[in-house]
Amino acid sequence: MAAPGALQEHPPLQGAARIWGTIALSSATFMNVLDSSIANVSLPAIAGNLGVSPNQGIWVITSFAVANAISVPLTGWLSQRFGQVRLFAASLLLFVLASWLCGLAPSMPLLIAARALQGFVAGPMIPLSQSLLLASYPRALAGLAMALWAMSTLVAPVMGPLLGGWITDHFAWPWIFFINVPVGFVAAFAVMALYRDRETRTRRVPIDSIGLALLVVWVGSLQMMLDLGKELDWFESPLITTLGVTALVGFAYFLVWELNEKHPVVDLRLFRIRNFWAGTAVTSLGYGVFFGNVVLLPLWLQQFMGYTATDAGIVTAPVGLMALVLSPIVGRTIHKVDPRKYASFAFLTFALVLWMRSWFNTQADLTTILIPTLVQGVAMAFFFIPMMTLTMTGLTPAQMPSASGLNNFVRIIAGALGASVFTTLWESRAAMHHAHLSEAVSAGNPVAQNTLQGLMSAGMSQQQALAQINRLVDQQSFMLAADDLFRISAWIFLGLIALVWLTRAPPRPLADAGPRSGPGSSQGADASAGAR
After folding, report:
1. What was the pLDDT predicted at 498?
2. How many structural domains compose the chain?
3. Where on the phi/psi map is residue 208: left (φ > 0), alpha (ψ -120 to 50), or beta?
4. DSSP line for 175-235
5. Alpha helices, H only, 317-399
6. Rounded to whole angstroms, what are the CA distances from 453 to 314, 462, 476?
């Protein structure tokens, strides 16, 4: 008998059915990931339209992120209880409903509630799309399936701000949510038509209510601390301190409870498998640094280089170009090449990109900014697919949904931490550089005096000239701070190369037979035991 929650022994899809299944699953994944970033550039329009401040508007992003982070680890339990195909289709249809409610929301509280619902029902979609897609392909093409899946997750974050800004400028902000309705309905119909006969076995697994409550408490507290920390001066604020202590204590209780619970809401025992814990650690650390830089670069371009939000999006969008070209190649060859070599090459390339950026200055032109952005696409193609292959090696089909959900959960938390840490360090380093540069702006410095006199000769008052000099010092300070973080990031990626080799290479497939639920799953329990 197949393990509960595992896909049954169905043969891979063939021909048009496989193509349409891939399109349907990838469209759903693309839509999900897109909605995590599409509202970012629309926040001023949303806040203005609903009569709140931009700071209050940030909860449109936070509510989605918190709810999504909480529901992703529930994928394993939910898939055992309801079946993977039914759960995916239900999540997709509920996501459509929540998107429609977001577009109709007449007030900020109702929009936040709809976004929280949207984030919560979106949680199982990404790990389940992985599992269903892998089961649609024969063993030898599992790498290609992973590549096709990864392409949708790589392009969506780049397209989100671009599409969101364009829709908001040319239509109205509700349409950033309404566009999900037709896409979601078509994808849900296609998934049910193609996969309804490929349902997984189900069983009545009791819900770990205490574990779920602890998960909500510590993840919610952590996300709120990260979102509000910079605005409230971090631990100088009693609220941030309280949230931090709550997150820490809640996390400690959560670990103890889940490790001793017979039916945990999050299966932390997966971390006993060597490839899973090492792969998850490397992926999360790499993604945290990657995402921190993804947030930092557009901020610098918009705030200190005179780029508009749309222009900054256009400059950073080519990052997905090389990833789209190379991902299928990586997927087709992943079973022939040790994935650890691919991942090491990715981190080496990331380090090169960030070293190139560490030499940016305030006169950097479009070409200077675009070259490392294009090269970064190469690193992305060789990062996500090999690391996912390594992480899932040694897992049985029954473990795949829980493992994928847990891996995505840790990655989401790492991304949130990366964004918060990088923006905080950026401002901190900029303040330090500002203090050092300001020391040179004195009556005894002839360059500073000549600049001041030149500005005053151009018609500025002394106060206006000093303000202009201060703006120039600000621009240089934040540029130097960004260079510092780019340089630190390069060294971190070089260090991650050593951690990659803590994993074991997956066994080479001997034959193209039978379904496949994930890299290494053909080895069953023996591979799982060998990876421990």
Report:
1. 94
2. 3
3. beta
4. HHHHTHHHHHHHHHHHHHHHHGGGPPP---PPP-HHHHHHHHHHHHHHHHHHHHHTTTTGG
5. 321-333, 339-357, 366-392
6. 39, 9, 20
Q: Which two tokens stand for residue 157?
A: 């974050």
pTM: 0.77
Helix axes 321-333, 142-170, angle to 10 degrees: 160
Long-range contacts of 449-455 (CB under 8 A, 24+ apart): none
Q: What is the dihedral of CA 106, 107, 113, 114, to 10 degrees?
A: 30
Tell me if residue 441 falls in helix, strand or coil: coil
pLDDT at 56: 64
Co-location of 324 and 473 in the same domain:
yes
Cα–Cα distance measured from residue 234 to residue 212, given in angstroms and rounded to the nearest whole number: 27
Distance CA 354, CA 351 (A): 5
d(CA 237, CA 231): 10
Contact 265, 77 (CB under 8 A): yes
Range of the domain at 76: 14-206
In a 13 Å sphere around the CA of 151, the CA atoms on its Cβ side amount to: 21
Residue 511 has pLDDT above 60, yes or no: no
Instruction: Look at residue 117 in the predicted model and tell me its pLDDT.
Output: 92
Residue 1 within any structural domain of the chain: no
Q: pLDDT tier at 519 (50, 70, 90 boundaries)?
A: very low
| C-beta of residue 342 within 8 angstroms of C-beta of residue 334 | yes
What confidence score (pLDDT) does residue 483 get? 94
Average pLDDT taken over every residue of the chain: 81
In whole angstroms, what is the distance from residue 285 CA to residue 283 CA?
6
Q: What is the mean pLDDT of residues 62-87?
A: 81
Instruction: Tell me the C-alpha distance between 416 and 403, whole Å.
Output: 20
In the DSSP assignment, the letter for residue 515 is B
Helix, strand, or coil here: 47? helix
Nearest one of 77, 420, 54, 417 to 219, comparing CA atoms: 417
CATH at residue 399? 1.20.1250.20
Contacts of 326 (CB under 8 A, 6+ apart): 377, 378, 381, 382
Same domain, 522 and 503: yes
Query: Of 125-129, 245-249, 310-314, 395-399, where does mean pLDDT reach its minimum?
Result: 310-314
